Every structure is written in C-alpha cells, then in structure tokens.
Amino acid sequence: MKGSRYKSLPLNVCPFGVTLAGMTRNAHLNELGEFLKTRRAELGPRAVGLPETGGVRRVKGLRREEVAQLAAISTEYYTRLEQGRIPASGPVLSALAQVLRLDDDQRDYLFELAGRGQDRPRRRAVQKIQPTLQRLLDNLIDTPAIVLGRRTDVLAWNSLAAALMTDFAEIPEKKRNHTRILFTDPAMRRLYADWEEVAHTTVAQLRMQAAKYPDDSRLVALVGELSVQDPHFRRWWGDHHVAARTMGTKTYHHPVAGKLTLDWDTLTASVDAEQQLVVLTAEPGTPSHDALRILASWATKHQQPAPDSTT
What we know:
Strand content: 5-15%
Order of helices and strands: HHHHHHEEHHHHHHEEEH
Radius of gyration: 25 Å
Largest sheet: 5 strands, antiparallel
Mean pLDDT: 83
Shape: elongated
Number of helices: 13
CATH architecture of the largest domain: 2-Layer Sandwich
CATH class of the largest domain: Alpha Beta
Number of strands: 5
Low-confidence stretches: 1-23, 305-311
C-alpha cells in the first residue's frame, strides 16, 4: 500500500513491533497453562500418594500447592506457569510430567508447548540387575544383602534381607525404593535403633544422586512426594547436606532376632556403576552373629528367596 508506514515491516512483524513469533510463543504458554490445569483437575490426592483429608475440597483434582510440592518447586512459580506468564525449564517439565502422570504423547506435547522439544529427556532403559550380582546374591545365604539401583530403587534382595528389613516382594515394583520405604513404613522407625541418623544419611546420599542426575524425573518426583509426606525429609532435604558413604554400622531391634549390630559395605557392579550390592555382616563370636544365625534359620522356614527384580 503506497504511503503506508507499515510497508517496510518484515513479514513476521505486526504493527507496533509485535512479532508473530512472540504472539505464537505467548499462545503456546497460555495453552501450556491450560494443559497443566486440565491435567491437574483429573488427579485426586490418592492417585499421587497424598493422604485423603476427608474434608470438602474447593477445587477439582489436586491443588496448585500440592502439584508444586510434589514437583519440588514453589507454589508461586507453578501458579505463574499455569497463568502462562513464564516458560519452564526442561527439568521442571520432567518433574511435572511425572507428578501429573502424563503418558508419552502428553509428555511430548508438554515439551513442545514449552518450546523445549529439544530438551525432552531420553527415556532411560529399565534397570535390570546384572547377572553377576544376581549370582553373588543367590550365594549369600547367611548374609543379608540387597542390590540398589538409581534413586536407591531396590532391584533385588535375598531372603535374609527380607527377613531383616521387610518383605520387598509385597511392595509394588514402582514403590520399591529404599528411601521411600525408610520414610513411609512406620515399622522402619522401630527397626532401626537410630532411625534419624540412618534416614538423614540416606537423604544426604540421595542429594548426591540429584546433583549427578538433575533431569531424572522419577528422582524429582520421589523428592517431591516425600517432602509433602514427611517433615523430617523436607527439613533434611532443605539442609543440602551430602554424603557418599559406602560403609558403616547399623543397629537393629528385630522382633524375632532381637538386637543386632551389623556392619554394612557396598560393592559396585563393574559393568553398571549405578548398581550397588549392599551386604550386612556381624563380627564372629558376638551376640549379633548368633542372632543373625537365628534369623537365617527363621527365614529358611518362613520365606522363599526373592525372584529376579527390575525397576
């Protein structure tokens, strides 16, 4: 149009300096917010492992603060995401996808809306216990032993470990995590003579993993879940203490074997550094050594060896 003051504007720029790309970006952020709100409304507390309060909820589905806590972000930050006011980073998107129980297509859509398609995390292969560790575990008859994987997931165990700690086979595979069991099973607080020290050390070790794998959405979800459910975990996680202990001593008060003081040590698989065999032993000639033999006899009569396990 002759004489128009807009004739020299690029094709991707609207009058007054607003780019079409900017308009599209804002539209995507708004759609991202609506998508998050819709998915949030579809989930109740029980679906994400939160306790039912029994009262009347003013909103359908999860509250914003519940999603924020589970994703380990602030409520203000999550609120701004739902309002379409800010973009989200890749790790935050991964955490939200895990919290909101998104399937693969929904996860891809979430990252595309956020303009983070290139940051979409690669799906990690299901972790399976190494055959060499399984054979070693099978041969440890008089020694409690478990194999821990990423995020302290329990990959495998022997019957004596189940007799000492808990029947891992009764725990759903997706919930079979040492840190989660330690904080959510009330029996653990009675089993460990110094539960707070054991649990605090476990949180510090988990923080080391969080630094190594910041994009692990399942780890982020685990931290969010336990932060909501347990004040000890929430406080210790906020302290930012870290530890990489591979040996130590633990004292147990077992309902069958009584008091046991056991030394623990870890062996790392040479072909997969994310798998560790944790063994517990008692010094020969001590009351704990005798108690462990009693427990082994009891386990033989009451329990069967655990099958191969993956997570």
